[in-house]
Amino acid sequence: MKIDALAGTLESSDVMVRIGPAAQPGIQLEIDSIVKQQFGAAIEQVVRETLAQLGVKQANVVVDDKGALECVLRARVQAAALRAAQQTNYNGASYETTSQYVVHPWRQCRHVKHVIRLRR
């Protein structure tokens, strides 16, 4: 991680993810969620899996969840991580993140419109 970066909003059914450089090894994760009692462990698992898929091994991560679905959480974590790493390439494709969402082009979330721009 090179810089602190944000993705998401504090609107209902969304999540704000802040990722930045960490002084200590590992992923330092803080979760604040309206559904933490029921889904806190699942939120942590999704965040850690998504960061592992991106190759992130050291970062400070703050998740402020307002009831986001898993696909939205993954998209927000991906966007914040790519921004924090100042990276636009992932998994063989070049992405341009917007203030909305960044996800794999083949993933869909039925009720959320994803903004994706692929560059070849």
Automatic annotation (TrEMBL):
Functional summary from the UniProt entry: Covalent carrier of the coenzyme of citrate lyase.
Annotated organism of origin: Klebsiella pneumoniae
Protein name: Citrate lyase acyl carrier protein
Similarity comment: Belongs to the CitD family.
Localization, UniProt: Cytoplasm
Subunit-structure text: Oligomer with a subunit composition of (alpha,beta,gamma)6.
Any one annotated GO CC term: cytoplasm
Pfam families recorded: ACP
Molecular function per GO: lyase activity
